[in-house]
Amino acid sequence: MRVSAGELEFDWIGDWAQLPSSEMVARGWSHHGMAFSNEGQIVTFHPTESLVVILTTEGELVRSFEIPVIEAHGMTLSTLGLNQSIWIADNGRKRHPGHEYEYLPDPLQSKVVRVSMDGLVEMELFEPSVPALQGGIFSPTSVIAFDENLRGNGDIWVADGYGKSLVHRYNSNGDYLRSIDGTRGSGRFDCPHSLWIDTRSGTPELLVADRANGRVQAFDMEGDYIRTIGSDYFDRPTVFASYGDNLLVGELNARITVVGPNDELIGYIGDNTPVSEEAAWPNEPDSSGIPKRTSRLKEGLFNSPHGITSDSDGNIYVTEWLIGGRYTKLALVE
């Protein structure tokens, strides 16, 4: 199956990933991110277990290791000197198949954590303990560091996407600096689901996927508003990846959006937005109304993109939010 956006063309390669604990894969409601490492490997999460999974670009399992999280959600890689680490947003609860896919535990156990490429904990961050932020829940969905390789100062940005819809800034030591909420931009955030540091212009910008508002807000690296992107062409922007002069935006409502260097829409890949209106999407109900893995998955069409990355050869990798997950490779056609 071949898919395209603008002049970009890809071969759709389904069932791409060889995952460990394969008997457990089908039970987990995945909620995971993806990244491309300095070693040329794909880093992602297991749908069911608290595991980081490292794969070759052909989908072969290299290794996996446990991580101290409840629900591995957003993922970015951090380069510190010669070493890479993994930043993980743990939104603090996971849908449990033994409880009709209700969220457990309650109360939440949320945090962000940086681990080595072997799973050693290097840093943990929690909600800032300032009076103005107390009350309600903290449920982070994304974390990214402004590293030296981005000409940065090491600041860490955390999106409380499932909690108070704020984005927090910490310094490299984990000390809280400030929070932004979008009101000094194009409007109050509503589920700031993912963060990205965009360096395509030569001046780093912090991008916030303001998902429920159907837009991306751009800020400078002090957290001051610059502009809004895609209000006229995004549906539910969820996750980012760089792609040469372009930007890839995974949209939960069933497509990958390619954005050009001037914020222009290049096109959609695998656009399947009507599926999000189906009963119990991203899954489907069984005879008792309990979610089960959907039978609506189709080659060439997305269901619920939630993680995305690209490799040095221009291939794209996508994970989707559904029971059992779905891992797809889009192989660039030269």
Topology:
Blueprint lengths: L1 E4 L2 E6 L8 H4 L8 E3 L5 E4 L5 E5 L5 E6 L5 E9 L2 E8 L3 E3 L5 E3 L6 E6 L4 E5 L16 E4 L10 E5 L5 E5 L5 E5 L11 E7 L6 E6 L4 E5 L5 E5 L7 E7 L2 E6 L3 E5 L5 E5 L14 E2 L5 E2 L12 E6 L5 E5 L5 E7 L2
Antiparallel strand pairs: 1-2, 2-29, 3-4, 4-5, 5-6, 7-8, 8-11, 9-10, 11-12, 13-14, 14-15, 15-16, 17-18, 18-19, 19-20, 21-22, 22-23, 23-24, 25-26, 27-28, 28-29
Structure overview:
By secondary structure, this protein is an all-beta fold. It has a domain at 2-147 and 155-239: Neuraminidase, CATH 2.120.10. The chain is built from 1 helix and 29 strands. The strands form 8 sheets. The chain has a 5-stranded antiparallel sheet, with no helix packed on it. Strands 3-4-5-6 form a 4-stranded antiparallel sheet, with no helix packed on it. A 4-stranded antiparallel sheet has the order 7-8-11-12, with no helix packed on it. A hairpin with a 2-residue loop joins strand 21 and strand 22 (246-251). The longest helix has 4 residues, at 22-25. The model has no long low-confidence stretch (mean pLDDT 96).
Low-confidence stretches: none
The CATH class of the domain at 2-147 and 155-239: Mainly Beta
Order of helices and strands: EEHEEEEEEEEEEEEEEEEEEEEEEEEEEE
Under CATH, the topology of the domain at 2-147 and 155-239 can be stated as Neuraminidase
CA-based shape = globular
How does the major sheet shape up? 5 strands, antiparallel
SS content category = mainly beta
Q: Which strand order spans the largest sheet, edge to edge or round the barrel?
A: 1-2-29-28-27
User: Beta-strand percentage?
Assistant: 35-45%
| Spatial separation of the terminal alpha carbons | 15 Å
Total strand count, please?
Answer: 29
CATH homology superfamily name of the domain at 2-147 and 155-239? TolB, C-terminal domain
| CATH architecture tag of the domain at 2-147 and 155-239 | 6 Propeller
Estimate percent helicity: under 10%
Average of per-residue pLDDT values: 96
Rg measurement, Å: 18 Å
Number of H/I helices: 1
